[in-house]
C-alpha cells in the first residue's frame, strides 16, 4: 500500500506540476511573457484565433514542462516513501506506548493498524482521476467540441479522497475500541488525537518541503517560465 500510494502521488505530480495556462484576460505590466524563456517547455494546446475577452477569462494556451514534471514526480516518490514509513513507525511506537507493558508485545493492534491502510486504496483512483485535470484547460484552449469543466474531474477525486481518509481514521478509532478495557482510553486518545496530528504534521511538512525544493531547484536548472523564475 505504501508503494502504491507513493506511485500515485508521483503520478499526480507528474500530471499537474510544470503546467502554465495563458488566458485571454487583458495583460498589464505584471503579466508574465506570453511565451516561455526557460528550457523544456512544450506547447500542448492553442486557441487559433483566441476568443475575445467578455468579462470572463478562458484558457487560450496550455504549456507543459516534462523535465520539471519528472523532477517533481521523482522527488515526490522518494519523499512519499520516506514520510509514510516514518508515519508507520510513529504509529507503531504510539500503539505500543498506549497499550502499556501488559499488551504491547501481542502485536495484534499493530497488525490491525497496517490492515487499516486498506481504506487508503480509494486514494489510488482519486489520484488517477485528478491527474486528468489538465484536460480541462486543454479542452478549452484547443476549442474541443466538448469542454471539460474542472469540477467534473476534481469533484469525484475529492469525494473519493475524503471517503478514503475518513474511513481510515474512523476505522482506526473503531479498532482501538476493541482493546482490553485497561488500555482502551489511552488507545482511543492516541487514535483520536495524536494519530491525526502525526499524519497531518508529517504530510504537511512533506508538502512544504517539496514546494520549496522545487522553488529552489527549478530556477537553477533553467526550467522556469522565465529565466531565474519557477512560474
Name its key features:
single chain; 231 residues; mainly alpha; three-stranded antiparallel sheet; 7 helices; 61% helix; 7% strand; elongated
Distance between the termini: 33 Å
Q: Which regions have little confidence, pLDDT < 50, spanning 5+ residues?
A: none
Count of alpha and pi helical runs: 7
Order of helices and strands: HEEEHHHHHH
Task: Give the overall shape.
Answer: elongated
Major beta-sheet overview = 3 strands, antiparallel
Q: Describe the strand arrangement of the main beta sheet, using strand numbers.
A: 1-3-2
Work out the helicity level: 55-70%
Radius of gyration: 22 Å
- Report the portion of residues in β strands: 5-15%
> Could you report the average pLDDT, rounded to the nearest whole number?
89
Oligomer: single chain
How many beta-strand segments? 3
Helix/strand-derived category reads mainly alpha
Summarize the structure.
This protein is 61% helix and 7% strand.
Task: Describe what you observe in this structure.
This protein has 231 residues and is mostly helical. The chain has seven helices and three strands, in the order H-E-E-E-H-H-H-H-H-H. It has helices at 2-16, 66-99, 108-115, 123-130, 134-141, 150-176, 181-221, and strands at 19-23, 42-46, 59-64. Helix 2 runs antiparallel to helix 3 (108-115). The mean pLDDT is 89.
Topology summary:
Elements (H helix, E strand, L loop, with lengths): L1 H15 L2 E5 L18 E5 L12 E6 L1 H34 L8 H8 L7 H8 L3 H8 L8 H27 L4 H41 L10
Antiparallel strand pairs: 1-3, 2-3
Helix pairs in contact: 1-2, 1-4, 2-3, 2-7, 4-6, 6-7
Amino acid at each position: 500500500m505504501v508503494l502504491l500510494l507513493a506511485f500515485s502521488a508521483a503520478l499526480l505530480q507528474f500530471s499537474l506540476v510544470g503546467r502554465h495556462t495563458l488566458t485571454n484576460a487583458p495583460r498589464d505590466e505584471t503579466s508574465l511573457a506570453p511565451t516561455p524563456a526557460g528550457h523544456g517547455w512544450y506547447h500542448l494546446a492553442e486557441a487559433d484565433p483566441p476568443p475575445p475577452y467578455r468579462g470572463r477569462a478562458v484558457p487560450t494556451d496550455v504549456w507543459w514542462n516534462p523535465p520539471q514534471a519528472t523532477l517533481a514526480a521523482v522527488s515526490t516518490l522518494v519523499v512519499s516513501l520516506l514520510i509514510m514509513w516514518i508515519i508507520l513507525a510513529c504509529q507503531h511506537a504510539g500503539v505500543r506506548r498506549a497499550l502499556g507493558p501488559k499488551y504491547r508485545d501481542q502485536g495484534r493492534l499493530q497488525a490491525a493498524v497496517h490492515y487499516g491502510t486498506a481504506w487508503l486504496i480509494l486514494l489510488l483512483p482519486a489520484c488517477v482521476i485528478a491527474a486528468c485535470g489538465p484536460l480541462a484547460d486543454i479542452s478549452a484552449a484547443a476549442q474541443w467540441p466538448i469542454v471539460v469543466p474542472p469540477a467534473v474531474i476534481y469533484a469525484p477525486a475529492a469525494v473519493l479522497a475524503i471517503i478514503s481518509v475518513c474511513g481510515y481514521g474512523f476505522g482506526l478509532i473503531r479498532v482501538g475500541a476493541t482493546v482490553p478495557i485497561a488500555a482502551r482510553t489511552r488507545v482511543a486518545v492516541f487514535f483520536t488525537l495524536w494519530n491525526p496530528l502525526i499524519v497531518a504534521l508529517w504530510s504537511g511538512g512533506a508538502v512544504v518541503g517539496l514546494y520549496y525544493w522545487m522553488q529552489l531547484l527549478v530556477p537553477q536548472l533553467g526550467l522556469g517560465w522565465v529565466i531565474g523564475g519557477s512560474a
